[in-house]
């Protein structure tokens, strides 16, 4: 963090003393005003519900330029990573700061591959759920339960523990997501296969059965690997901030990641991919493209509480670069599967076109985000709608861990403890119940 020559001076109209606040510059993006001493100097807090103007930390991992619609992982544009790398190379980049050379990639891949099995006891957790449990309810339980098995990697202040916990989580998430899916359809779990790629192994655990050979489709394998890359990290979004705040108490990494899973589930966040696909289904059922106008009218009516799911973003006020790549992946996968006329994909593109020409969306800078097309690709791959957010959690685990480890390694980090503007009752005395 570099101090800037300029500083901010706070003056008070009631004649209170001015307060000088240092300004710091990053390598990219907005400067920050350091308010850490503000309360001590003024007895006042800042007020920023939703953190619209607040930087919660310094980070070197991911940078988003919301106005230009750019996304960099450790400086590499997402477009280049999605076309030239695979997910495990991207994991290495996010965790260690650089893309691996071939020997490092082979070593990292071997490490992850050898941790893909979960303790046999894990399957007994699933039996407690109803078969129709939402996969994210199961995942929230299973990921937290991992901390019951790996006592040798739960001391978050021990770098060795952090390293092995990171590998275990990245390796085991696909196994757990596939188990959650198999449980809901009453099929036997498939063990991971060390001869398959990360994405190929996930497809195998999801769709193979013990009854016959399952052939991994290279097209689906590549598409899924790219979906994982696009979802891997995204700066200080709600679930990443949850993981950081949870981890700041010193809890173990499995518990902190479980908190991230729980937060991602919300429809305003990672749950939007499931909600976006269900929205497309509803418009389809109501009559398809000719019903888009009616739907858009509902969205623009504030009382309807209807949102165009998969649209809008706190940071992107331009097209989410991941949505562009996801749309391309849609075209590729649907084309390869002979589904280029998939009605839902056509409906999504028609909906996007109409929305991007409508003043309501243009004036609010609402564009498709990562969740708008991801459901269509996942559905084409054969992943059921309720599992979409679990796939998002699988991919985002590496980002959560990288951000958590960066926080723990930051000498400035402390337990997160926001304050408040209190507007409740002043002190009053308890009356005996007879006179209340
Ligand atoms: C993710 O933060 C991240 O990086 C998240 C993520 C990641 O990778 O981690 O990118 C993943 O969560 C993507 C977002 C997925 N969510 C959705 O697609 C749900 C639909 N989108 C909205 O809920 C909303 O756009 C948010 C939550 C994404 C962003 O909300 P903000 O930043 O709080 O913006 P806002 O709600 O204040 O919206 C500004 C205006 C409002 O209208 P006015 O009050 O100004 O009249 O735009 C409207 C909103 O009502 N608006 C929408 C809308 N999104 C915003 N209106 C209709 N449909 C929408 N989708």
Automatic annotation (TrEMBL):
Taxonomic source organism: Variovorax ginsengisoli
GO molecular function: citrate synthase activity
Top-level taxon in the UniProt lineage: Bacteria
Annotated metabolic or biological route of this protein: Carbohydrate metabolism; tricarboxylic acid cycle; isocitrate from oxaloacetate: step 1/2
NCBIfam families, A to Z: cit_synth_I, PRK05614.1
Protein's UniProt keywords contain Transferase: yes
Family annotation (InterPro entries): Citrate_synth-like_lrg_a-sub, Citrate_synth-like_sm_a-sub, Citrate_synthase, Citrate_synthase_AS, Citrate_synthase_bac-typ, Citrate_synthase_sf, Citrate_synthase_typ-I
Keyword set, alphabetical order: Acyltransferase, Transferase, Tricarboxylic acid cycle
Swiss-Prot/TrEMBL catalytic activity: oxaloacetate + acetyl-CoA + H2O = citrate + CoA + H(+)
CDD domains in UniProt: EcCS_like
Family to which the UniProt record says this protein belongs: Belongs to the citrate synthase family.
Protein name in UniProt: Citrate synthase
Higher taxonomy: Bacteria, Pseudomonadati, Pseudomonadota, Betaproteobacteria, Burkholderiales
Keyword Acyltransferase attributed: yes
């Amino acid at each position: 963090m570099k101090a800037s020559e300029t500083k901010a001076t706070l003056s008070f109209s009631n004649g209170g003393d001015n307060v000088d606040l240092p300004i710091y510059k990053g390598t990219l993006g907005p400067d920050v005003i350091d308010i850490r001493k503000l309360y001590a100097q003024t007895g006042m807090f800042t007020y920023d519900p939703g953190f619209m103007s607040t930087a919660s930390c310094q980070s070197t991992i991911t940078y988003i330029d919301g106005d230009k619609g750019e996304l960099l992982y450790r400086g590499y544009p997402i477009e280049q990573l999605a076309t030239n790398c695979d997910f495990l190379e991207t994991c290495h980049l996010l965790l260690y700061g650089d893309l691996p050379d071939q020997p490092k990639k082979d070593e990292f891949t071997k490490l992850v591959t050898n941790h893909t099995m979960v303790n046999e006891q894990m399957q007994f957790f699933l039996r407690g759920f109803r078969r129709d449990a939402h996969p994210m309810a199961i995942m929230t339980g299973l990921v937290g339960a991992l901390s019951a098995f790996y006592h040798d990697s739960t001391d978050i202040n021990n770098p060795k523990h952090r390293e092995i916990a990171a590998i275990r989580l990245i390796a085991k998430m696909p196994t757990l997501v596939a188990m959650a899916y198999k449980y809901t359809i009453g099929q036997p779990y498939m063990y991971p296969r060390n001869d398959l790629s990360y994405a190929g192994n996930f497809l195998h655990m999801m769709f193979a059965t013990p009854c016959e050979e399952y052939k991994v489709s290279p097209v689906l394998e590549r598409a899924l690997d790219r979906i994982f890359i696009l979802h891997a990290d995204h700066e200080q979004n709600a679930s990443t901030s949850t993981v950081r705040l949870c981890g700041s108490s010193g809890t173990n990494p499995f518990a902190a990641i479980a908190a991230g899973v729980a937060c991602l589930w919300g429809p305003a966040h990672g749950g939007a991919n499931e909600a976006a696909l269900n929205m497309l289904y509803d418009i389809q059922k109501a009559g398809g493209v000719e019903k888009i106008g009616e739907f858009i009218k509902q969205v623009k009516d504030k009382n309807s509480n209807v949102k165009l799911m998969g649209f809008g973003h706190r940071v992107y006020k331009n097209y989410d670069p991941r949505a562009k790549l996801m749309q391309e992946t849609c075209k590729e996968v649907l084309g390869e599967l002979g589904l280029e006329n998939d009605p839902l994909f056509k409906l999504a593109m028609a909906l996007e076109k109409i929305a991007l020409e409508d003043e309501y969306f243009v004036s609010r800078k609402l564009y498709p985000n990562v969740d708008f097309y991801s459901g269509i690709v996942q559905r084409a791959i054969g992943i059921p709608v309720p599992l979409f957010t679990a796939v998002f959690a699988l991919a985002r685990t590496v980002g959560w861990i990288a951000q958590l480890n960066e926080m723990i390694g930051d000498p400035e980090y402390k337990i997160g403890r926001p304050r408040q503007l209190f507007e409740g009752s002043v002190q009053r005395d308890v009356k005996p119940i007879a006179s209340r």
